[in-house]
Specification:
7 helices
């Protein structure tokens, strides 16, 4: 926030570099807008991990080779996968840490995917982004995001499997219907022929 203010740059275009780790303690780099927080739950879901959490400053420094507050995604000590919030890539130019505290470098956002091989992820859910667009006066953008959110929810609902207990109940119900149609009943765990 301080760097953006001193440079006269929108904090949204200043990208912070965060060193995080998954449930196996495997490190990863996350690039996020300076004025936003990372939803670790959404990040974990996006990268296929059970959980994601920030590294302690000591661990982050050991993995990256940079002091906390001066971490750059470029030239890290250890090779780590890089994930970038998809809305960062929509910006034409960004400012990102150059490897020292207070040292920002202006680059095109496309460099993140070209040079770092950064993978996109969606940190905020679509409904939240639609609300932000509406607050910022972008009605068309808000409507598009809201439609996307509804389509996403409907798609998930169609793909969703019921919980195991319900699947078991459904299997039992279907077996019972089949047995009744064939003239069988279950008593004491055994199928017994009943007159139809």
């Amino acid at each position: 926030a301080e760097s953006a203010r001193q440079l006269g740059v929108d904090e949204h275009a200043v990208v912070k570099t965060l060193v995080m780790q998954d449930e196996k303690r495997e490190p990863l780099i996350v690039l996020m807008h300076g004025d936003r927080q990372v939803s670790t739950k959404n990040l974990a879901r996006a990268i296929g991990a059970k959980s994601v959490e920030p590294c302690t400053p000591e661990v982050a420094q050991r993995h990256s080779g940079y002091q906390v507050g001066g971490t750059s995604p470029f030239g890290t000590r250890k090779a780590m996968p890089v994930f970038v919030e998809e809305t960062v890539l929509a910006l034409p130019r960004i400012c990102i840490n150059g490897g020292r505290r207070g040292y920002l470098v202006g680059i095109e956002s496309a460099v993140l995917t070209q040079a770092l091989g950064a993978k996109r992820f969606e940190s905020q859910n679509r409904v939240f982004r639609a609300q932000l667009a509406l607050r910022e006066g972008d009605r068309a953008g808000a409507v598009t995001l809201a439609r996307d959110a509804l389509e996403f929810v409907e798609g998930r609902r169609q793909q969703a499997r019921p919980p195991p207990r319900l699947r078991a109940y459904d299997k039992i119900r279907r077996r019972g219907e089949n047995d009744e149609a064939e003239g069988h009943a279950h008593r004491g765990g055994q199928a017994v022929r009943i007159p139809v």
